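Whiteboard transcription, Tuesday session. T.W. wrote the structure tokens on the left side:
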């Protein structure tokens, strides 16, 4: 006879808390947009607390004989407009503004080579788009500054080789991006459109993304080449700490309460959850398809939504991760090479 094994009882208070949070969230609908770079579509995706599904598809691009590559996404603070960067053009890319009400085009502006990530300053109201520039010899590229009301580029600021990521500090007067091949974090004066500092991150870092803490003067940088998350003190311009993140960290999102950092790990086919109280990874969750790319955290800091590109002709996916319990709760297929993601709204 074999002795019967008994399973340890779960920690009941934590289990009940997660259950209550899940039940409360189930009454809400979370809406976001995702970009499918290899089929020229942007999809509206909704999660009802249990299931996630695509509710609308926007065809983007103007050159019907080639793939133009929607890459980066952002939604304006009023949630009335969606901005999509179109990576390829003749020769330059562009950014297109869509109405979130009915998805018709409101305007477009031509930018630089391979426009990618973007963000809107809460101070100036302008849109700052990095021109990643995958074409030709490595040379310094730029951040394009666009007036979103009239969709006109008002300036370009040279930053570094292969800039990526686009984020603001809480005041909206300092813009941050990374220069992937310069291994640096670039701080831009968003008012006067000039580079203030290039903060070295170390050779081999190959940074791919930056996010800012909502209350503290800290920037978190994905060191894709060094398997680290670098914490940069934006007051003195130095790297204050390095968090191990094996698996090629690519994109980052910080929860609005500043408690959690979520990182996509391309090589590891996973998403990492980092506790910003201890600066340690407390959980790692596998994604439903290869090459995790983008991530956003819901404003109520309950869920992380993660895109994965997929491989070849296989469709990409969007996964939902419950942050408190560090569990994968839902996923849906999207288009081909699903990458950029932008949260839109929560509705009861």
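and on the right, the sequence the group agreed on:
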């Amino acid at each position: 006879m074999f002795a019967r094994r008994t399973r340890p009882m779960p920690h009941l208070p934590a289990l009940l808390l997660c259950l209550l949070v899940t039940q409360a969230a189930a009454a809400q609908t979370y809406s976001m947009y995702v970009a499918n770079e290899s089929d020229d579509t942007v999809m509206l995706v909704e999660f009802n607390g249990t299931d996630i599904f695509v509710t609308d598809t926007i065809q983007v691009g103007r050159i019907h004989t080639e793939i133009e590559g929607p890459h980066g996404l952002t939604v304006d603070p009023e949630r009335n407009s969606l901005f999509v960067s179109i990576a390829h053009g003749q020769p330059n890319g562009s950014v297109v503004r869509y109405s979130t009400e009915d998805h018709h085009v409101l305007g477009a502006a031509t930018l630089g080579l391979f426009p990618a990530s973007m963000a809107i300053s809460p101070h100036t109201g302008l849109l700052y788009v990095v021109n990643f520039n995958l074409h030709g010899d490595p040379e310094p590229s730029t951040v394009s500054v666009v007036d979103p009301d009239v969709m006109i580029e008002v300036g370009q600021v040279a930053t570094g080789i292969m800039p990526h990521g686009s984020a603001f500090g809480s005041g909206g007067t300092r813009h941050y991006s990374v220069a992937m091949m310069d291994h640096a974090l670039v701080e831009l004066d968003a008012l006067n459109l000039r580079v203030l500092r290039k903060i070295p991150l170390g050779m081999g870092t190959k940074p791919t993304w930056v996010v800012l803490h909502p209350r503290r003067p800290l920037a978190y940088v994905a060191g894709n080449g060094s398997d680290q998350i670098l914490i940069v003190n934006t007051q003195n311009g130095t790297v204050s700490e390095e968090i191990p993140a094996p698996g090629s960290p690519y994109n980052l999102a910080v929860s609005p309460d500043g408690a959690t950092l979520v990182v996509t790990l391309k090589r590891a086919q996973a998403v990492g959850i980092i506790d910003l109280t201890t600066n340690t990874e407390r959980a790692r969750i596998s994604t439903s398809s290869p090459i995790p790319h983008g991530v956003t955290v819901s404003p109520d800091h309950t869920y992380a939504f993660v895109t994965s590109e997929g491989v070849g002709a296989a469709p990409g996916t969007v996964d939902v991760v419950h942050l408190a319990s560090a569990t994968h709760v839902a996923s849906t297929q999207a288009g081909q090479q699903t990458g950029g993601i932008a949260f839109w709204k929560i509705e009861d």
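Someone added at the bottom: The radius of gyration is 20 Å.
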